[in-house]
């Protein structure tokens, strides 16, 4: 058993980045142009073009690293958090740490961190647009066991 989240996508790292760069057709064109300068005897132009390629590759690599770190930080900031009832007290935890048996305490605007069964509510509507594509919120009501087993659209077990 793991956390209640999707597997993170593996980053390629430096070698994967260099492999991608070296497989670009434009890279071969620039290497060919630098080699042509050197063959024609214009060593200075060939060296300048080669150094410019190395500089551009280095800048691109470091920018990619910085942007991936920034995206990771944004992902952590936007990760859903859940207010759960554990050991008789309310506790705010990361949504990925919600386990069976936790009681989720929801209020207006909260995101449901895991599948849940609705025990009590007052005028609850859920935005299921990420799952179903529907733009209209769906009214949720407390359902009995027979309705839960029948898969009624009005219970919260489908969130």
Compact summary:
Helices cover 45% and strands 13% of the residues.
How would you describe the overall organization of this protein?
By secondary structure, this protein is an alpha+beta fold. Helices cover 45% and strands 13% of the residues. It has five helices and five strands; from the N terminus they run αααββββαβα. The protein has helices at residues 13-22, 25-39, 43-78, 129-132, 145-150; strands at residues 81-86, 89-94, 103-104, 124-126, 138-140. Helix 2 (25-39) runs antiparallel to helix 3. It is elongated. Mean pLDDT is 79; it is low at 145-159.
Q: What's the arrangement of secondary structure elements?
A:
Layout: H1 13-22, H2 25-39, H3 43-78, E1 81-86, E2 89-94, E3 103-104, E4 124-126, H4 129-132, E5 138-140, H5 145-150
Antiparallel strand pairs: 1-2, 1-3, 4-5
Helix pairs in contact: 2-3
Please give a handful of descriptors for the protein shown.
159 residues; two-stranded antiparallel ribbon; disordered C terminus; Calcium-transporting ATPase, cytoplasmic transduction domain A; alpha+beta; 13% strand; 2 domains
């Amino acid at each position: 058993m793991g956390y209640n989240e999707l597997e993170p996508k593996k980053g390629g790292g430096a070698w994967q980045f260099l492999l991608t760069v070296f497989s670009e057709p434009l890279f071969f064109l620039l290497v060919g142009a630098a080699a042509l300068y050197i063959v024609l005897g214009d060593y200075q132009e060939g060296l300048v073009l080669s150094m410019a390629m190395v500089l551009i590759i280095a800048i691109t690599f470091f920018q990619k690293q910085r942007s991936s770190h920034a995206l990771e930080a944004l992902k952590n900031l936007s990760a859903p958090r859940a207010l759960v009832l554990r050991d008789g007290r309310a506790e705010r935890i990361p949504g990925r740490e919600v386990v069976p048996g936790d009681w989720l305490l929801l209020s207006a605007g909260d995101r449901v961190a895991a599948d849940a069964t609705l025990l009590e509510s007052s005028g609850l509507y859920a935005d299921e647009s990420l799952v179903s594509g529907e733009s209209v919120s769906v009214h949720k009501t407390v359902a009995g066991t027979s309705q839960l087993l029948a898969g009624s659209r009005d219970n919260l077990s489908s969130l």
